[in-house]
Design brief:
Elements (H helix, E strand, L loop, with lengths): L2 H14 L4 H12 L17 H4 L1 H8 L4 H22 L13 E12 L5 E12 L15 H16 L3
Antiparallel strand pairs: 1-2
Helix pairs in contact: 1-2, 1-5, 1-6, 2-5, 4-5
The chain binds zinc ion.
Length: 164
C-alpha cells in the first residue's frame, strides 16, 4: 500500500476519535515509519511485525504519568499498527514475527457477477510464505497514485468535517 494512504488512514482515525491535529499528524507519521526499512535494503522487514509496532504503545503506557508523551507515543503506535494491518491485507507481512518465521497475508474477496441470475462469491484465504527478512537488491514502488491521493484527501476531509 502506498505511503500516502498509510499516512491518511491513521491520521483520519485519530481526527475522527477527537484527537488534535498534532496527534493526527503523529499517527500519520507512525503509519509511514515501517516503510523506512527500505533505506536499509529490506522491505516488509521486522518493522512490519506487531511485536515491534506495539513498542511505542508500551513505551507510552510506561510514561503514562507524562500525558504529552503518552498521547504522542499512543498516536505513533496507532499509525504503526494500522500500517502492519493494512499491509497484512494487501500482501505478505511478517505480522507475528518472532513468534513465527513466516510472512502472512489475508486475501479476502467478495465478488458480484451479473448474468441471467446474480451470483455473489466470497473467498478468504490466509497465505503464508517463509520469511526472508525482506532482503532485496532493488526496490520499486509508487510513492502515491492518483487513486491513493484522491482517497487520502477524501478521508482527511471527512475526518475534519466529522470532528466535534
Ligand atoms: Zn509497509
Amino acid at each position: 500500500m502506498e505511503p500516502l494512504l498509510h499516512l491518511a488512514i491513521p491520521a483520519s482515525l485519530m481526527l475522527l476519535r477527537g484527537g488534535r491535529m498534532r496527534w493526527a499528524f503523529l499517527a500519520g507519521l507512525g503509519g509511514t515509519l515501517p516503510d523506512f526499512d527500505v533505506f536499509f535494503m529490506v522491505h516488509r522487514s521486522v518493522s512490519h511485525s506487531l511485536s515491534i509496532a506495539v513498542i511505542p504503545l508500551i513505551s507510552g503506557v510506561m510514561l503514562r504519568r507524562r500525558a504529552y508523551a503518552y498521547a504522542a507515543l499512543s498516536a505513533i503506535a496507532l499509525g504503526w499498527i494500522s500500517h502492519v494491518m493494512l499491509d497484512f491485507i494487501s500482501g505478505l507481512t511478517p505480522v507475528i514475527w518472532p513468534l513465527s518465521n513466516y510472512y502472512y497475508g489475508l486475501v479476502f474477496d467478495l465478488e458480484f457477477r451479473m448474468s441471467s441470475s446474480p451470483i455473489i462469491t466470497l473467498d478468504a484465504q490466509l497465505l503464508e510464505e517463509v520469511y526472508d527478512y525482506g532482503l532485496f537488491k532493488s526496490f520499486e514502488a509508487p510513492i502515491f497514485t492518483a487513486e491513493g491521493l484522491a482517497l487520502s484527501i477524501i478521508l482527511i476531509l471527512i475526518a475534519i468535517a466529522g470532528r466535534r
